[in-house]
Specification:
The complex is a heterodimer.
Chain A (H helix, E strand, L loop, with lengths): L26 H7 L8 H11 L1 H23 L30 H8 L18 H37 L1 H16 L2 H19 L4 H5 L1 H14 L1 H14 L3 H8 L4 H12 L1 H24 L11 H8 L8 H28 L6
Helix pairs in contact in A: 2-15, 3-5, 3-15, 5-6, 5-9, 5-10, 5-13, 5-14, 5-15, 6-10, 7-9, 10-12, 10-13, 11-12, 13-14, 13-15, 14-15
Chain B lengths: L2 H30 L14 H10 L6 H13 L14 H36 L4 H14 L3 H15 L14 H27 L2 H9 L3 H13 L1 H25 L4 H11 L2 H29 L7
Classes of the chains: A mainly alpha, B mainly alpha.
Chain lengths: 359, 308
């Protein structure tokens, strides 16, 4: 059918098909059908927007760099965080290792250097017990990050489960569950944490002796327990609020009418649609957990000796502030950079994933 | 006052009472779960002494009776004697410490809120100008600093390196640094809150109308804009008090201020259980009452807020 004009003229009253409607598409017309851009899911869209946010990406890279640093360095570093360099078996304690300034060496080390041996320098010197300070700071940062992540995960799991049940079932269940949340929410968290860490320390110490948990320390455990008890409430509130509005949608009704179980509806329909809120609030939970942990460690309620944490390092440095101010500045700087990076990344995530802010 | 608001206030107060009651209960039972009991941490106690102490503090009675006795005591602001500070009542220790702490915390809160609102409005008025950017960078950096970092760095700079201020809170002028350390974080937070709500308000129609009418710019800013922009700041007043109370724990420790915070921290180290209990309940109740006042004020000040 190369030339359409050759066809006989159609009678306007006839039911005969108009052949002009059945022409082959030209290349030009075909080109119009090609999709101009990939269809983007909500996630891809959010991540694309996050990537465009330079500050948030820089913070993400800083966090990744610190995470890699604190994982790898303790493995290859020649000193450990608990090793007192002046203490060797069968010898008198060599106090020349205590309170070394950065890049100074102990007496025996100096002798070994003279004999041509190469010794890894103490980049930040040593502390009052002759422990290499650099590795203690790095290990402290590791503890802080771990506490942040695990606390956020605990809060995420409990908050999402509780919030989903309350939001999905609604009615009386919701009312009772939310009253409980209200009460926990209005408890002063810091005071309760301090109280519980004091008590848990006394109660748990004899119970976990000898188990692998003992190494972690009761204080660390009590931080996690307290997070599990108190900090999930804001997450539960958020998830519930989201679910309450999302469950009004027709697709939820459709799923219910074909007999999907509540669990399936929550898992497949409701939670994926409230993901943005969950991501943002989890990201912002991490710095707040790090804040709390460093605060407790500073008060002497955090990790147990000899394990360092950034808070306890800063607290220990306070007594020698006149002679060794850098011992305070280094951990302080670390906490600040970590919390700042998480805060800014959280802000970036909120800008990228909050549909309400979409332009 | 309409009935809806009255119902809200009653509900909110009931919640506060329940929470305070819960704090007392948690504190009481937590402390009683400590091996050996709260009153008997003395190491070299003979059985006879233990018995006598138990009888003295009523520890030989059933737990439920002890609990009601303690509740009655708390209602009368009587937390029993301090374990480690011989001859002093816990309530006396709390009141003495609170006199110092309330001065410190109140000043810090006032400075933080007022300067925060000032710089926040300044940043909003000069939106996207250099001054706005400087204020935002500083406040973002400050919000990421825990109170003990701010306090120790200030100590380092002003006491150790330059010696401008005394490091001891007892000396004249010694409260200046603790006040600054406590107010910097709330200030930065208030700056961010005020700025964003101010930006929101400044783009409203009625501001444009006021300007078009020829109202003086300062009047537009203070009478029309700021009054409407402060509502989110009011909501922050409750958490602010909570922050200052917990912050004062470390700040008072660092600067050796003889306040309630320092008293609380040392009671944790000394295992002075009655003092820990008393202080936790006192500070907890204080925070909850402040939150209650904040929430009610918020609803009263801004009738647009939906009551939930």
């Amino acid at each position: 059918m190369n030339n359409i004009n050759d066809l006989p003229k159609k009678n306007p009253l006839s039911f005969q098909l108009n052949l002009k409607d059945f022409e082959k598409a030209t290349d030009e017309e075909k080109a119009q059908q090609v999709r101009m851009s990939e269809s983007v899911t909500f996630f891809k869209d959010g991540i694309r927007r996050l990537k465009r946010n330079r500050i948030a990406m820089a913070c993400l890279w800083i966090i990744v760099a610190i995470a890699i640093l604190v994982t790898i360095v303790p493995m290859v570093y020649p000193y450990t965080y608990e090793q007192q360099l002046g203490v060797a078996q069968g010898k008198r304690t060599d106090s020349s290792y205590n309170n070394l300034k950065p890049f100074e060496y102990g007496e025996t080390e100096l002798k070994r250097i003279e004999s041509g041996e190469k010794i890894f320098p103490h980049i930040f010197g040593t502390d009052a017990s002759g422990r290499d300070y650099a590795i203690r700071v790095i290990f402290g940062a590791r503890i802080s990050l771990l506490v942040g992540f695990f606390a956020a995960i605990i809060v995420l799991i409990i908050g999402v489960v509780y919030g989903s049940i309350s939001g999905y079932f609604g009615g009386k269940t919701d009312l009772i569950m939310m009253r409980i949340v209200d009460i926990i929410y209005s408890l002063p968290d810091m005071l309760m944490i301090i109280l519980l860490s004091v008590v848990l320390k006394e109660v748990l110490t004899p119970k976990i002796e000898g188990t692998s948990l003992a190494k972690m320390g009761t204080d660390m455990l009590s931080i996690f327990i307290v997070f599990a008890l108190l900090y999930w409430v804001s997450m539960a509130r958020l998830v519930r609020g989201q679910l309450l509005s999302i469950k009004q949608n027709e697709y939820v009704l459709a799923a219910r009418s074909i007999g999907a179980s509540p669990w399936r509806i929550i898992k497949k329909h409701l939670l994926p649609n409230s993901m943005s809120v969950i991501i943002i609030s989890t990201a912002l939970q991490i710095p707040s957990a790090i804040f709390t942990e460093s605060f407790l460690s500073f008060l002497g309620l955090g990790v147990s000796i000899p394990m360092p944490s950034l808070g306890s390092l800063a607290s220990d440095a306070l007594s020698g502030i006149y002679s060794y101010p850098y011992r305070l500045i280094i951990p302080a700087l670390f906490i600040w950079i970590i919390v700042l990076s998480f805060n800014l990344l959280g802000d970036g995530l909120r800008d990228a994933f909050d549909p309400k802010l979409k332009k | 006052m309409d009935s809806k608001l009255a119902i809200y206030i009653v509900k909110r107060m009931a919640l506060a009472v329940v929470t305070i009651f819960l704090i007392i209960t948690i504190t009481f039972f937590a402390m009683h779960n400590i091996p050996g009991g709260p009153f008997l941490s003395e190491k070299a106690a003979t059985p006879a002494v233990t018995k006598a102490l138990e009888a003295k503090y009523g520890l030989d009675k059933p737990l439920s009776e002890q609990y009601t006795t303690y509740l009655k005591g708390v209602a009368k602001f009587d937390f029993g004697p301090s374990l480690k500070q011989r001859g002093r009542e816990v309530s006396t220790v709390i009141m003495t410490g609170f006199k110092v702490s309330s001065k410190l915390g109140g000043t810090a809160a006032l400075i933080g809120l007022s300067l925060g609102m000032f710089f926040g409005s300044l940043a909003a008025v000069f939106h996207n100008k250099a001054i706005d950017k400087i204020i935002m960078v500083i406040s973002t950096a400050m919000v990421a600093m825990p109170s003990f970092i701010i306090a120790t760095l200030l100590l380092l700079i002003f006491c150790v390196w330059t010696g401008i201020f005394p490091a001891n809170g007892n000396e004249p002028g010694g409260l200046i640094l603790p006040i600054i350390s406590l107010s910097l974080y709330p200030m930065s937070y208030t700056v961010r809150l005020t700025r964003s709500s101010m930006l929101d308000v400044l783009s409203q129609d009625y501001i444009r109308t006021a300007r078009a009418k020829g109202v003086k710019p300062s009047k537009v800013l203070f009478k029309h804009a700021l009054r409407n922009a402060v509502t989110p700041v009011i909501t922050y007043a409750g958490p602010l008090i909570a922050y200052i109370i917990t912050g004062s724990l470390v700040v008072e420790k660092i600067f050796a201020v003889p306040g309630l915070g320092k008293e609380f921290v040392s009671s944790i180290f000394n295992r002075d259980y009655t003092l820990i209990m008393g202080t936790t309940i006192f500070l907890g109740a204080l925070i909850i009452v402040m939150m209650l006042v904040t929430d009610i004020m918020y609803k009263v000040f801004d009738p647009r807020i939906q009551l939930g």
